[in-house]
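Example for tutorial group B:
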């Protein structure tokens, strides 16, 4: 594999061109054409989740591909919507579920939920970016993590959000100088350690965020440790098992 820094720069320095190349790939084109042709015909939650190819495309776009099989779980989230702060989606620690439900907001808009651009081209854009990150992982696992972190970080406001996603946890631990074994600690202790060592407020500043990303890829190269498990972790949907664990944690506490 290439160095993390070199692989990251390969994609990040001309991201629009990289995204265009991914969009033009035959399989991506076929899957996108199917999605755009079918999504406008979907009127209910059941129609949505029961079309495996369509639903799988949407789930992958949000990095939730490995949860495509969990139809009952996703149906509950979609049917509950996000308007009520106590809804199922709003209680989940991982904000990707809330974003998914907000995009396909059947609870609020009913049969017209899929007419909005966010449910059409917005999802396509997410899918292409997700695919690009997967392909970056073929060059360097750490580069894929860096691109993923760069995309997700601006929406992060709490260490619990980092801990709800295994991939973000990996980046956060590296930046904070914490070993992977830290994940065995109590969730509140982990959050306390990250809050003390990682400037989460800087995530919203593009220049500061870029410095953090560069630091991560450089640290990854300096450590020169095999990371073959990272790409598999991301391919499973950025750590579903841990996400479900923190879902239970957040529900117990009444949300993060």
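The residue assignment follows.
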């Amino acid at each position: 594999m290439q160095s993390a820094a070199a692989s990251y720069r390969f994609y990040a320095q001309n991201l629009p061109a990289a995204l265009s190349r991914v969009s033009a790939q035959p399989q991506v084109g076929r899957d996108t054409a199917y999605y755009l042709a079918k999504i406008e015909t979907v009127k209910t939650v059941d129609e949505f989740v029961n079309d495996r190819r369509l639903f799988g495309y949407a789930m992958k776009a949000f990095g939730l591909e490995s949860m495509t099989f969990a139809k009952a779980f996703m149906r509950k989230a979609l049917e509950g919507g996000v308007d009520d702060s106590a809804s199922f989606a709003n209680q989940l620690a991982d904000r990707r579920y809330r974003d998914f439900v907000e995009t396909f907001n059947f609870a609020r808009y009913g049969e017209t939920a899929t007419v909005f651009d966010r449910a059409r081209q917005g999802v396509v854009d997410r899918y292409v970016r997700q695919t690009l990150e997967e392909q970056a992982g073929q060059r360097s696992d750490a580069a894929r993590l860096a691109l993923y972190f760069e995309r997700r970080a601006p929406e992060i406001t709490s260490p619990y959000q980092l801990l709800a996603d295994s991939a973000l946890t990996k980046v956060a631990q590296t930046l904070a100088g914490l070993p992977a074994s830290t994940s065995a600690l109590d969730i509140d202790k982990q959050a306390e350690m990250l809050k003390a060592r990682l400037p989460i407020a800087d995530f919203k500043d593009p220049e500061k965020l870029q410095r953090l990303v560069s630091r991560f890829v450089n640290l990854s190269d300096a450590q020169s440790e095999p990371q073959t498990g990272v790409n598999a972790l991301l391919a499973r949907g950025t750590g579903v098992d841990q996400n479900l664990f923190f879902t239970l944690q957040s529900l117990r506490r009444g949300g993060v």
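The longest helix spans residues 206-223. Compare this with the pattern of hydrophobic and polar residues in the output above.
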